[in-house]
Amino acid sequence: MACSQEPRVFEQKTIERGRSLFTVGPVAAGEVLFEEEPLVSSQFSWNKVCKYIACDYCLKNLETATQNARRLCKDGKLELPYPECCETVVASQVFCEQCATPYCSEQCRSKAFQKYHRVLCAGSGVENADHPLQALENVWRTLHYPPETTSISLVYKLLAMIQQTNNRGELLSQISLFCNRSKDEAADCIHKLLGISIQAL
């Protein structure tokens, strides 16, 4: 985690909430407290089906505002006012040469190849419905209708990262930081198991 100039936030684990961030003073609206690169990220499966184009590594939007509006409105001639306000930089976008997976920059493509994409690259068969990853995505969508809260591709990206890494112990240690239960979550699970009547207690 890269904090802003002064260490305004700190991380702490609590019994009630698990892994938490705390601030040492007031926070102004819009103030950036910290930025970090995700361990892994993944676009929702239904978004891909709806042809929303995002960087496979950082999830940055790769459509211009006009392209997005045209896709959603199914109107290829639609023009939006003020196209100069759109922040999408089409010129920096690159693709995997084997499977055409999109990235917002060469840096993101390189990081994806270093972390997981060498294992997951489907080559020219990426759109083939019989490809195992496509079949898995199809099954996932039949079980998880929108709005999605997670994606099966997070799981197979993590597995690919474990397969591809040279330092499996360090990666598993990073993953384990996300594996904790807070007191509140444990109580909520017990309430769900015992039924609604116990929740009134």
TrEMBL record:
**What GO biological process, any one, is recorded here?**
negative regulation of gene expression, epigenetic
Does the keyword section mention Methyltransferase?
A: yes
Top-level taxonomic group: Eukaryota
**What keywords sit in the KW lines?**
Methyltransferase, S-adenosyl-L-methionine, Transferase
Q: Does the keyword Transferase apply?
A: yes
Q: Example GO molecular function term?
A: histone H4K20 methyltransferase activity
Q: Entry's PANTHER family? A: HISTONE-LYSINE N-TRIMETHYLTRANSFERASE SMYD5, SET AND MYND DOMAIN-CONTAINING PROTEIN 5
Q: What is this protein called?
A: SMYD5
What species does this protein belong to? Answer: Bugula neritina (Brown bryozoan)
| Taxonomic lineage of the native organism | Eukaryota, Metazoa, Spiralia, Lophotrochozoa, Bryozoa
